[in-house]
User: Fold this.
Amino acid sequence: MEANLEQVKVLRSIFSVEINAALVKEYIDNCVHTGSAATLFKDPHITNAFYSEGIDASNGIENAIKVCALAPTTGNKNTIIVKMEIGKLWLNNYSDRVEVISNDDANRTTREEAATNIMQSYLTPQKLRRAKKGKPEAPIIAVENVGTGKVDARILNGVDYKPTQTTYIAVEAAAGASVSLSGNQLNVEMTSAGHVVVKSAAQKGKLIHFTGLKPGIEYLIYAYAQNGKNQVSPLSRVMKVRG
Assistant:
């Protein structure tokens, strides 16, 4: 066994910055379903009572979404946020338990094995080492309105994610745009007139700041990464935010 192995951690940014309540609920459901059936993580290693708390958190989000759909008041919208935070708290507690079990000397002899253990829980392990230069993975992004017409976009991939350049695209949602990559060429096809902003950042560009967006107007944010001219990642998942 390797001595003094550094612990492999869970990549918590996948759920911690998610603003779509339905996706948080789905992530909890997948963790409960997968973890409670896995040899390392099923009862009694992680108790059925704890998994039941996850089911309760998921149901709380679902019920809040249904109530808000019938009566979209400010109070009901805030309830969704509260229930989503309860769900994220459960996911963090689940991650704590999974990390301890996955890194136990009885369950792994290498860091690669610990990472494999984590994946059996439905959670995602952080990268073990710096990736070689080549085609980058798709960026994982989070977006946030930080003022009138101002939006921050962040890269959430782990510390080993270091492409040469990251490009961000903000497209006014009402324009009905189709955004795609063909090799290293970005294509934006729009069904009506609308505002488009493209910004690039050197290296992994962990944070970029958009200004001059239309206040209160919904934008779709995309990103892709490059190593050199031709090693281009897939597009990130689209994120929505208001200017």
Q: What stands out?
A: The chain is about 35% helix and 25% strand. The first strand starts at residue 141 and ends at 147.
